[in-house]
Amino acid sequence: MLYGHVDWDEPADKMEEACGVFGIFAPGRDVARLSYYGLYSLQHRGQESAGIAVTDGREIKLHKEMGLVSEVFSEDILQGLKGIGAIGHVRYSTTGASLAVNAQPLVCQYLQGSLAIAHNGNLINADELREKLAANGSVFQSTIDSEIIVNLIARYGQGTIEDALMKCMIDLKGTYSLVVMTEDKVIGVRDPYGNRPLCIGKLGEDYLIASESCALDPLGAEFVRDVNPGEIVTLDKNGLCSKQFVLPVEKAVCIFEYVYFARPDSNIDGINVMQVRRAMGRELAKEHPVEADLVVPVPDSGIAGALGYAEQLGLVFDMGLMKNRYIGRTFIKPEQSERDLAVRMKLNPVTNLVKDKRLVLLDDSVVRGTTSKKIVEMLKYKGAKEVHLRITSPPVKGPCYYGIDTSERSQLIAAQKTLDEVREYIGADSLKYLSIEGLYRAVDRKTGFCTACFDGQYPIEVSARAGLGKHVLEIPRNVRRESGT
Q1: In what order do the strands lie in the sheet with 222-226?
Q2: 398 near 438, Cβ under 8 Å?
Q3: CA 88 to CA 83: how far, in whole Å?
Q4: CATH number, residue 424
Q5: How does pLDDT run across 137-173, given as a tens digit for each residue?
Q6: Rounded-to-integer distance, Cα 151 and Cα 139, Å
Q7: Is the residue at 469 inside a domain?
Q8: What angle do CA 316, 318, 323 make, to 5 degrees?
Q9: Of the four, 21, 331, 405, 483, which is 20 to 30 A from 467 by CA?
Q10: pLDDT band for position 411 (50/70/90)?
């Protein structure tokens, strides 16, 4: 089941994640199959393409295609991917078109041998790096940031892969969680701000790396810890070792991991996603209560918040909207005139539950407003007396430059309209958002998050070429400390 993703024939009214990454070094195990199940658990982070690269100690084999994990890999394909280590990737495009050439992992040859890489995040100085590399003879076959990182590794490839990655981190500006593989090791890297999640798991004596802890549980793996911001983690025949190349600057984990992106059963940097979302609903109820008969979530991303909202006010919670879970990404898109039919095929109100009721409709966010508008229309068409929209996050007013698909302020309804204008457009009887203070209370922390999409405070300043007209923040170059794990 994909968490909250709706594939209507128009831009989705959600922030969309860039991708998910997975890595494992486990001689004697079926690393391709374990990667397959790991990616399956991360499918909510990207549904456009999937790929797995495997090393047998001598060479790297790769299989990747457009589509869901279950569509890209068959039993025969998995049987042909035997090895001692593997990395995998599921993608949603934020930079680079949705094309097969942009699918990951990327595999190439460089001075030290074979190399595979998969990337979650976004480089804000990608254009500058691409121009410099091209001027020095680099050739690019895709339009994604990951190929820039590959070229930088090749440029610094005279020493170990870890040394090359350390030098890359000096040049890279932006957000990234990387899994990198050579013939004999798998490496995880998290940017100095920790903006994109990455964690370590252990399966017997073997180690794994994944975007979220939910990818570890189905494999029977034990959660070890999160990769620290600015840390390089190596998995090889010696087990796990760590190098803290850059001491973390002010930590800036993407707050939307807790609002929407991550799976509810994941723990990110010591915080359980499901508990936070429920707490967001409770805080919202404290800030904006309403007299109502029923609390209805927008499935699936609004469920946890709706439970918390109903609990706090003693209201009845019920699934007044049912989602058709058998319409997949290949559902035939209707013509413009048939979009309302498409909405009813995806979500349908339970008439007997909502008719003549005062409803609290709860969702995690409103980005463009199109989805909320259609849902409110459906509920009122089915006889709802009132529909009060409650959102468990603040208004999204700022574009994201760090790997999410809202790079233009004009796409954001809260940046273009007043609160009452948004309410009127959506057609709700009332509209209220959780405050930024309420969001901090829900996560039980006031610092360590990127909340730029809510308050415009960008932790990594973006150059004028990226759209904000600010200078790029330099990553510290003089702090290097090694530690064993």
Answers
A1: 60-66, 49-55, 85-91, 19-25, 206-210, 199-203, 222-226
A2: no
A3: 14
A4: 3.40.50.2020
A5: 788 887 788 899 999 999 998 999 999 999 999 999 9
A6: 8
A7: no
A8: 160
A9: 21
A10: confident
| CA dist., res. 172 & res. 165, Å (int) | 10
Same domain, yes or no, for 29 and 74? yes
- Residues labelled catalytic: 19
Q: Are residues 313 and 409 in the same domain?
A: yes
Q: Which residues form the domain of 411?
A: 268-447
Cα–Cα dist 102/239, whole Å: 32
* Domain containing residue 80: CATH number: 3.60.20.10
Farthest-apart Cα atoms in the chain, separation: 72
Measured in degrees and rounded to the nearest 5, phi and psi for residue 383 equal 105, 10
d(CA 241, CA 484): 6
375 located within any domain: yes
Long-range pairs of 72-78 with CB within 8 A, sequence gap ≥ 24? 73/36, 78/30, 78/32, 78/33, 78/36
Nearest CA-CA partner of 169 in 147, 185, 154, 190:
190
Do 231 and 474 meet the contact criterion of CB atoms below 8 Å apart?
A: no
Judge whether 210 lies within some domain.
yes
Which helix H or strand E contains 387, and what residues bound it?
strand 386-391
216 and 280 belong to one structural domain: no
Reported as half-sphere exposure (CB side, CA atoms, 13 A), residue 67 has a value of 10
My answer on whether 355 and 240 are in the same domain is: no
Q: Are 65 and 49 in contact (CB under 8 A)?
A: yes
Does 118 score more than 70 pLDDT?
Answer: yes
**Among residues 104, 92, 66, which one has the least CA distance to residue 14?**
92
Q: Which residue has the tokens 């990667």?
A: 35
Q: Does residue 306 sit within a domain?
A: yes
Q: Which run of H or E residues covers position 443?
A: helix 436-443
Give the span between the Cα atoms of 424 and 421, in whole angstroms: 5
Mean pLDDT of 385-407: 88
Integer Cα distance of 155 and 136 in angstroms: 10
Cis preceding linkage at 76, omega within 30: no
Residues 47 and 161 in one domain: yes
- Report helix angle 419-426 to 370-381, nearest 10: 50
Q: Give residue 198's identity as a one-letter amino acid code.
A: L
* Other CB atoms within 10 Å distance of the CB of residue 57: 11
Amino acid at 166: M
Q: Same domain, yes or no, for 218 and 342?
A: no
Question: What is the number of domains present in the chain?
Answer: 2
H or E element in which residue 158 lies: none
220 and 282 within one domain: no
- CA 297 to chain CA centroid, nearest Å: 21
